[in-house]
Design brief:
418 residues; 2 domains; five-stranded mixed β-sheet; five-stranded antiparallel β-sheet; 11 helices; 33% helix
């Protein structure tokens, strides 16, 4: 069994959210796993253990100190698991800064394509086969339509989601689609004029492409299913034709940096953001969600609260743990070979944006949340320097990598930062 350090109030980070998902797992996971409602996969065990150890002594603490006054700051190591809400947020910011340097200097559109819920059981049985098919067919739908209509090769960045607002099973892709591309005639970079989209045509194209892949898997005998025979399978396909195949496109955004920031904030993220948790009380946890079926006078979705017992919450959340080695972010079209895009076609950043990227370290990320960089001494305004790392092994503390022993003398009480 994997030993982990319990989260305590003393380890609360500067500017940290009021409630931590790891705290709720610390309280009830050991009880739940003795008699789980659903089978717990190895990847789910791994994700929960990583999240519970994240920012605790068991993963290590980096110690920093001001070279003048000696004020010390403790920085707890993170787990880097894709399911962890804190780690995924920092990963999103780093990904956004990296990818925007390789995007076409064109407007981009946020596009969402959703599968009917009637496919949910089949997707859960086949996992990566159908999830990969969704990502491929949704990207191909936009890519081929732009090629056929405008004779351009666009770039597509696709992010998979398996969850809805209430964390039920809701499979869809978020895509960043360049509103234009590289001309197939003279290889020039061209933008698409206007915002017109034939939604009905795209919906039909998306449905047909996905159903073709589904049928091919059935014909090859690799699809896991409960159909009696081929006629039963074809009846199921026919019933899908009557379902809603949803496609949504946002208006074009002019600057790739804006698009990435906008999409990354809620697309490339963990299943449940901790700032949405409103209550952890006894066996229950509550979180906010947007009810898209009900809108207010400004036509914005009404925000509601959902409260669940841990027996219901854990299986609902854990069904969204990413599959092992499954790539949740994929690149298509011109972005499939980003290194081959001519340099003059790429988005050129301003000097101010470049400085932002270079300073996107841990301290800068904390400053974006709290307005304060814990690695800058508030008294001397000097950057704190690294002293050593301490790691806890089986309840015994071990210190490693001493670099500045002269700064070990404590002049001001430690500030603990997760």
């Amino acid at each position: 069994m994997c030993w982990h350090q319990k989260h305590t109030e003393a380890k609360t980070a500067i500017g940290q959210d009021k409630y931590r998902l790891a705290d709720f797992f610390d309280m009830w996971w050991d009880t739940y796993k003795k008699n789980p409602r659903h089978f717990i996969t190895p990847e789910q065990y791994k994700a929960v253990n990583a999240m519970r150890q994240c920012r605790t002594e068991s993963l290590g603490i980096d110690h920093y100190a001001c070279p003048d006054c000696g004020e010390r700051t403790q920085v707890y190591h993170n787990c880097k698991n894709r399911f962890c809400p804190t780690c995924s947020w920092q990963d999103t910011l780093k990904w956004a800064d990296k990818i925007k340097q390789k995007m076409l200097a064109l407007p981009h559109r946020h596009t969402v394509m959703t599968l009917p819920h009637k496919l949910n059981n089949l997707i859960k049985e086949n996992n990566d086969k159908l999830l990969s098919a969704l990502m491929r067919t949704s990207a191909d739908t936009m890519k081929e339509w732009i090629k056929e209509k405008y004779h351009l090769d666009p770039g597509v960045i696709s992010v998979l989601h398996t969850f809805g607002e209430t964390k039920d099973y809701h499979v869809h892709t978020h895509m960043i689609v360049s509103w234009g591309g590289i001309s197939r005639k003279d290889h020039s970079l061209q933008a698409i004029k206007g915002e017109y989209v034939n939604y009905e045509f795209l919906k039909k194209k998306f449905r047909c492409k996905f159903e073709d892949e589904l049928t091919a898997l059935y014909n090859k005998g690799v699809l896991i299913h409960n159909f009696i025979d081929r006629q039963d399978f074809l009846r199921f396909i026919k019933s899908l034709n009557k379902q809603k195949w949803i496609i949504h496109l946002e208006p074009p955004m002019q600057i790739p940096a804006e698009v990435i920031r906008y999409i990354g904030r809620y697309s490339k993220r963990a299943c449940l953001s901790e700032y949405k948790i409103t209550k952890i009380e006894a066996e229950n946890i509550a979180f906010r969600y947007k009810d898209y079926k009900t809108t207010d006078k400004n036509k914005k979705p009404v925000e509601r609260e959902l409260e669940l017992n841990f027996w219901d919450f854990f299986p609902r959340l854990l069904q969204h743990v990413p599959l092992r080695y499954f790539r949740l972010v994929r690149y298509y079209g011109a972005y499939a070979n980003r290194n081959q895009i001519p340099q003059q076609y790429l988005y050129s950043e301003t000097e101010e944006e470049k400085e932002t990227i270079e300073s996107a370290d841990w301290g800068s990320l904390q400053e974006e949340i709290t307005g304060e960089n814990p690695l800058i001494c508030p008294h001397c305004q000097k950057r704190k320097v690294y002293i050593y790392t301490s790691i806890r092994f089986n309840n015994k503390s071990k210190q490693e990598t001493f670099q500045r022993p002269e700064l070990m003398k404590e002049k001001i009480p430690d500030r603990q930062v997760a």
